[in-house]
Every structure is written in C-alpha cells, then in structure tokens.
C-alpha cells in the first residue's frame, strides 16, 4: 500500500509543475499570462457551467476528467500556441510525437492500473472522436476566445490573426462540439477583426 | 438562450479572478505562492488519483465537482490560511458569514437553476457531513501538507506550527475522510517537527 501511495504522490507532485507552464493567453484582466494548471481548472468549471450546450450522449463527468488531465503532457512539451508559427506548430507531427512520449513518462509514474486508465482518457481527448472528447475540445477552444474578448484582443493582436484564420483554427472545432457557443463568441469577437472586402 | 449564455459567461469570467487569489502554501518547488485556481485543479486531480482511499459510498465525480467549486468564495473573501492567527481565523464565524455572502453573489451570477445547483454543492462541501464532502475536505487538507514536505517546511516554519497543532488543525480532518493518507503524510512530515518531551 505504501508503494502505491508513493507512486500516486510522485505523480501528483510532478503534476504540480503544470502550474509553471505558461500559455499564450492571458487572464481576462490581461494582467499576466495564464498557466496550464489554472487553465485546466477553469475548463473543468466551463464543463460544469456549460453542460447544457453538450450534445446527446455526452457524459459531463468524463468531460471534466479529460479536461483535468488534458494538458499534463505540457510539463515536458510546453504549451504550443494555436496561432504560433502561422498556425502550423499546434498539432504538428513533431508535437504529437513529443506529447505521446511525455504521456508515457508522466502517466508512467502512477501505479500501472491507474496510469493506464488515465492515459486512455488523455488519448481519447487527443483523438477527438468520441462525443465526450469532441465537447471537451470545444471548451478548450472557446475559453481562450473569451479571454481574448475580455482582455481586448489578446493573442489575436499578438499574432495578427484574421477572422478567417480564427474560423479555421478555432471556430470549426468549437462548432463541432458546441455550435451555439461558437455563434455566441463569434458575434462577441467580431469587433476585433476588420471587415475584409 | 443568449441571456442564459450571458449569465453563464459572466460567472465564468468572474471565476477567472480566483487565479489571482494567493494562498499561504507555495508550489512544491517553493518558487512562489500557489493561487486558489490552480490549487482547485490540483485537488480535482488528487481526487482522481487517490480515489482508492475514499470510504464506501463516496462518489468521486461529485467530489471532483465540489473541489472545482470549493474556493470560489475566496474571490471576495481571500484565502484564510489554516495556521494564521494561531489557527483561530480559519472557520471563524466572521469568515463563515463573509463566505456565505460571497456564495450568494458569485453563484447568483448564474441562471437561477444552475446557480442553486452549484451553490448547494458548495454548501455541502462546507458542511462536511456527507461522505463525499468529508473525503473532499480530507484532500483539501492533505495537499498543503504534501507541499510543505516538498518545499522543506513551508507554512509550518512560517507560522511556527507544532506537531500537536498540525494534528489538531489538519491531521484530524484528513484522518476523518482518508485515514491512511494521514498516516502516510504524518510519517513523511515527522522530520520537520522537534520531538516534544
């Protein structure tokens, strides 16, 4: 039993490092960049509060579990901003390989039964094929949009993002799992984008 | 529907402020004080990882939900360190009244049905009478103990805490919901306390 607790706490103490991984997005008040630990908390709260936006068959408790775990690999890989490298870095093959290796190491700290269970939830989130994972991904995309709206443009200004790029990189993924949320934040974000043509 | 989303996002944006509420406890590496947003994430992860320490009848998904919500009132009240004012400030009547008022305001931002549901979960946590709440409280107490162990003494040094005070203020509450966790961290923390007598 003590060996098992040793492994559980080794993982929990390692997870603490996620609080030192900084994202591109700032807090709503723009005072500083958000870290991936507090971001994960905020997303879990998003899931509880926006559960009525989930499609049929979505289990919110599984969504919450995925969102709690979803960024742990960033302890090794860091956050890859969605609009960086003109949108090409996020989801690149190199990033995916590095994240899988990080998942092996980090979930590997746990007792094997528990590590396999939590790693499977993380992999399900990453694959974005099940209703739970699709909804979780929508929330992960909508929160930075809301923070950019609140902070006055945020990473859209920093990376000179166009409305078309936002639609392609972010909007389509929000709309896939939560179409009304995309309609809502799109309308609220319109004032940050110049009308093209 | 738009009015409902307005209320949901007003709450979620207000909740963002929890990331700026600082606790007495530091990160494991001692580099800075922890904020209550990232602390809430870490506790939700504790619940997923230490679920096998919960007593019979505990629903881990409800525990996770409580832990996500449990510190939101600190947006108005701030964190009241457990060892501050020689242990007398935390849980004082004045603090409880202020926290209830904060809960009214913050959960009151939500649509009424949802606000009532989440406020009830918060109140259940605070009352610490149900198996879910008792286990959630144990996790909330064990995490700072582990951080003090990792950071080399932390708030025990800062507030000159004795082993007896730790047992009374913290240990009894951990042991109530997760006795083996208290045995484990008590043994690991022993080197920070002088032997009395």
Short summary:
The structure is a homodimer of 197-residue chains. Chain A is mainly alpha-helical and 197 residues long. Chain A has helices at residues 2-15, 36-49, 60-69, 74-77, 93-107, 112-127, 131-151, 154-158, 163-177, 179-189, and strands at residues 22-26, 33-35.
List keywords for this structure.
YfbR/HDDC2 (chains A, B); mainly alpha; homodimer; metal-binding (chains A, B); Hydrolase (chains A, B); HD_domain (chains A, B); Hypothetical protein af1432; two-stranded antiparallel ribbon
What does this 3D model show about the protein?
Two copies of one chain form a homodimer. Chain A has helices spanning 2-15, 36-49, 60-69, 74-77, 93-107, 112-127, 131-151, 154-158, 163-177, 179-189; strands at residues 22-26, 33-35. Chain A has 197 residues and is mainly α. Chain A has a single domain, classed as Hypothetical protein af1432 (Orthogonal Bundle), CATH 1.10.3210.10. In chain A, strands 1-2 form a two-stranded antiparallel sheet. The longest helix of chain A has 21 residues, at 131-151. Chain A is globular. In chain A, 47% of the residues are buried. The mean pLDDT of chain A is 95. Chains A and B meet through α1, α2, α3, α7 and α10 of A and α1, α2, α3, α7 and α10 of B. Chains A, B: Keywords: Hydrolase, Metal-binding. Chains A, B: It comes from Cereibacter changlensis JA139. Chains A, B: One of its GO terms (cellular component) is cytoplasm. Chains A, B: This is Hydrolase.
């Amino acid at each position: 039993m003590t060996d098992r607790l040793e492994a559980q706490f080794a993982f929990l103490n390692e997870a603490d490092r996620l609080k030192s991984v900084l994202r591109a997005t700032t807090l709503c008040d723009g005072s500083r960049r958000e870290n991936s630990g507090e971001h994960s908390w905020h997303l879990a709260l998003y899931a509880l509060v926006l559960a009525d936006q989930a499609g049929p068959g979505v289990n919110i408790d599984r969504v919450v579990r995925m969102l709690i775990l979803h960024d742990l690999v960033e302890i090794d890989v860091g956050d890859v901003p969605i609009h960086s490298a003109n949108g090409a870095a996020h989801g690149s093959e190199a990033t995916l390989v590095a994240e899988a290796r990080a998942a092996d190491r980090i979930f590997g700290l746990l007792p094997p039964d528990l590590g396999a269970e939590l790693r499977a939830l993380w992999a399900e989130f990453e694959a974005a094929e099940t209703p739970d994972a699709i909804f979780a991904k929508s929330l992960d995309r909508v929160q930075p949009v809301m923070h950019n709206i609140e902070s006055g443009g945020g990473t859209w200004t920093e990376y000179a993002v166009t409305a078309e790029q936002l639609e392609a990189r972010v909007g389509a993924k929000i709309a896939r799992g939560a179409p009304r949320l995309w309609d809502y934040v799109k309308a609220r974000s319109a004032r940050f984008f110049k009308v093209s043509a």
